[in-house]
Amino acid sequence: MLLKIQDHDAYCYTGGKPFDPALPTVVFIHGAQNDHSVWILQTRYFAHHGFGVLAVDLPGHGRSKGTALTTIKAMSDWLLALLDAAGVQQATLIGHSMGSLIALETCAKAPGRVVRLALVGTAYPMEVSDALLDAAKNEEQKAIDMVNIWSHTSIAHKPSCPGPGFYVMGGSQRLMQRISRQNPEKVFYTDFSACKAYANGETAAKAATCPVLFVLGKRDMMTPPKSSATLIKAIAHGKVVQIEHCGHALMAEQPDAVLNALFTFSRQ
Amino acid sequence: MGSPKYPGFDTLSLHAGAAPDPATGARATPIYLTTSFVFKDSDHAASLFNMECAGHVYSRISNPTNAVLEERIAALEGGVAGIAVASGQAAMHLGLVTIAGAGSHVVASRALYGGSQNLLAYTMKRFGIDTTFVDPRDLDAWRNAIRPNTKVLFGETLGNPGLDVLNIPQVAAIAHERHLPLMVDATFTTPYLLRPFEHGADLIFHSATKFLCGHGTAIGGLLVDGGTFDWQQAYEKTGHFAELCEPYDGFHGMVFAEESSVAPFSLRARREGLRDFGAVMSPHNAFAILQGIETLGLRMDRHVANTRKIVEFLTAHSAVESVSYPELTSHPDHALAKTLLPKGCGAVFSFEIRGGRAAGCRLVESLNIFSHLANVGDAKSLVIHPASTTHFRVPTEQLAASGITEGTIRLSIGLEDVDDLIEDLARALKAAKKGA
User: Which residue from A138, B11, B109, B344 lies 20 to 30 Å from A95 (Cα-Cα)?
Assistant: First the structure.
């Protein structure tokens, strides 16, 4: 589905069904150098089980036009504009990595519009090492390889994602390369810089009153579970689910466990 | 965190796609010889059918043993997905018909395996898919053969029978200029000697029957998606590939390019191609091919080392008119081979025996270790004399057009002690010469 946001086409995958704003809406927000397709299994399930799904491509990513936004705040403003354009008053927000910060900031900015908040593979502060940031700026392929290797715990995912026969690390690498090809303006560096610079996380977390779920990979090297301690502490009512045999690419490495956690949470 | 690195080729050959069996702890990949898989409940069943969760339903579509093989070949090739099918021919067919239909056109190298040539020249034509064959070394011919309805360019990494080295970077560039993918048959090279995606190819297929299996025990094919080709962009520019970029009535209106940004081809090839054409690989064969792949690197080094020594021997032999192997400076693709195939040009090659058809027949009949049969890529050394077998009915002038003469002998060099192979050849060449 294409919407016009801030004068640019914005793409949302709707889970294989036309979007129906009359249904409870769930918005899926991808992380750095990714697009909607990282949520493919979870979004299809939600869309066919009673929810309206908007899995966004952030500006400069995937099929959405425009340049990548440079701050989490700007991404949050964009997301609220997208909800307006889609005719959605309230939604559950589910964000992965950078997307989790966007979801958190959106919740702080417009608490009345967020009914639930799920933070997948999150951290605050979301540190990005100088080596990775430098690679993203000067040797993007090296940054892609670093993130790809650090995000996966295995070279044998069963039953794989999006299905048998797909090599998860190969798909992840190609997706990041595709984002680079589509938008040569250093999207990875822009995304990482936005994550690193985001300074409102603890304040936003303390303000969150809606139900909150943390979904964390036990073997996540990009955002290790301990790096979400500040947020978990700030949201006393938040629920934490840690997933076994899982790194930062949670939705691909353990699609069923992630779906189970998110769907159970969203139906409460 | 230091600079991380991906697992190496041999590690992937042993581990990619395979984990100890969760049900039994079996370390080797079990042969899941079952047609179907029990659903947990009705919702699980519906979710599997609707691609809302991953898993196996029916072994024509996917099977756990096959999936290990598929993911392993994808990892070894540096691709995003693999599909195991009944034969190399089935892999080629699946690759073509996923993106081409009646009214489509293919540009193909004319230096192809006979089965591939037949499929394109006769059988696909019967279904409305036309092919223009071009000299693989003539880049202008590739470019000029492209028509508005062309859907794919296709060649072999090492062509038949002269081992023409496909200039993958250049042919891929020609394809990509016109928003078309390049598909290659990489059977002779395997990912150990050449990884075509790194040079610009978009789709690869293998006759896994050959070096991947390596032991002459199983027929199988593998189709691999590089995830490199931007089907959506091509669709927006040319209108091609609506099969991937528009709703597909055959699968609940699914738009494959929306489902997967990088692998819509694989989604459609499996969800339509395996479902409807049904050329599935037996899990038993998948197991046999997996056993072969575990030692692929070790075997290919030995295949190539033996081949180099035999090429050297034959080149110096008085009964041999010529030897065609790209590592020889006399081969027209010698320079390209040095760039694309630094680890070796494989273990299948042809040579020309003096004395024509009769000498060729005598040579083949005099060999003891080499087996006279129609296959390549076995651990055992193989030989065939095309003029008296595969091309028996072909007139001499047509043989010449295919790069074959009456004295052409094709060898597939195996893993035996090379001194024994050379002795076998020396004795047989002597016998062939005596009979002249």
Answer: A138
